[in-house]
Amino acid sequence: MRRKRGNTVHPLLSLLTMLLFCGCATMDYRGVQAQFEQAVQVDNGAGVSAFNETSVYTAPGYAEVLAQLTPDAIGKLDERLRPNAWLLRAFCQYRTGELQPARESARLGLAEPRLVPSSRDHILLLMIPGLVVDMDIEKGWKEKQRRLTPEQYAPIERDYKSVFELFSAAEQNIGAATPLSTQYYLYYQRWRVIQGWRTIINTIVIGDEGQSESARLAALDRARQYFGGTALKDEAAYQAGKIPEGQPLRNLINAQSR
After folding, report:
1. Whether 50 contacts 6, CB under 8 Å
2. CA pair distance 229, 144, nearest whole angstrom
3. pTM of the model
4. Which of 26, 62, 101, 191 has the fewest other C-beta atoms within 10 Å?
């Protein structure tokens, strides 16, 4: 089974168009959502390699949405639309590599008084910081030419734990108002990040190959302890198993696992 940090097709078109869009009260906001949908479609079409999920996206679609969804513009929207607008802004920033601004937009969305607890917007806004940390991990890994010493890996290990703590905080807010599709998206992201963690561990190098293998095994064991004694491979399978067979994200996982 191939495990490659560049093999996770981003399920934007099939999922985010379903997750992020809500009823709109103004034609202007409908137009912004339509532009976002178009950007998602182009992004999805570019996502033929598995790491476009977190790779910075440079086509103009998201930037055009960002140019319209300024903080001032969001502030003029109906209060019911603002959480969704902040979510679209945060996601556009995340996809274009504006990582800290994405976290700030998610924070502002979570602070909106009309945010519905446990809604899709609520859960996804809680997830954005974890996605940002994961992208930051990948960025640093690539800057190090996809080879890490144990010392370079140590802060990455801490960051991966932070991602799962943020995802767990999102899961703790799941309730009656949370669509199943949003829950499945969380499980998918957990599966995807675990796959990335396994891949990065396999790039730890120290001394000869025997020393490198020992360092990798030690890192895998620490990750296993973090998941309560469950190996990363088994934890990934568990997260995948929470998504029913036949559901689009489960089909995606199955395809990427071949």
Report:
1. yes
2. 30
3. 0.86
4. 26
Give the pLDDT confidence of 178-229 residue by residue, as tens digits: 999 999 999 999 999 999 999 999 999 998 999 999 999 999 999 999 999 9
Distance in angstroms (rounded) separating the CA atoms of residues 176 and 161: 27
Residue type, 71: P
User: What is the C-alpha to C-alpha distance for residues 192 and 236, in angstroms, rounded to an integer?
Assistant: 8
Long-range contacts of 86-91 (CB under 8 A, 24+ apart): 86/112, 86/125, 87/20, 87/121, 87/124, 87/125, 87/128, 88/20, 88/32, 88/33, 88/36, 89/65, 90/125, 90/128, 91/16, 91/20, 91/124, 91/128
CB count within 10 Å of CB 242 equals 14
